[in-house]
Amino acid sequence: MAKLPRYSLAHNAKTKKWELKSEPSGKLVKRFTTKARATKGGVLGRAIGGRGLVRIKKRNGRIQEERTFPRSADPRGRG
User: Fold this and answer.
1) CA 7 to chain centroid
2) Residues 53, 4 contacting (CB under 8 angstroms)
3) pLDDT on residue 2
4) Alpha-helix runs per DSSP H in the chain
């Protein structure tokens, strides 16, 4: 199985926005006003082109959860 591209969604204290960045390059993919707007209704999946792993972080920088797109590509999935 090919490696999935990785992304992280974290709060930027300077801009006061939530930023979705590519790992490890750190390239900004998309910026959101709130975490709720970023995580609802498949917005993250569309932002990354429907394929990848997104680490959603809390304001303190710790990982809250990980989401895999598409879900069938999750290596921890049912097997």
Assistant:
1) 5
2) yes
3) 64
4) 35-39, 43-47
Question: What stretches of the chain adopt beta strand conformation (E)?
Answer: 6-12, 17-23, 28-32, 52-57, 63-69
Enumerate residues 6+ apart whose C-beta is below 8 A from 14: none
Within 10 A of 11 (CB to CB), how many other CB atoms are there?
17
- The SS3 call for residue 33 is coil
- In order along its 79 residues, the chain shows pLDDT tens digits of 568 899 999 999 999 999 999 998 999 999 999 999 999 988 999 999 989 999 999 999 999 999 998 877 777 765 4
β-partners of residue 8 are 21, 55
Six token digits for residue 9: 């969604």
Tokens in use for 74?
Answer: 């999750």
What pLDDT is stored for residue 46 in this prediction? 92
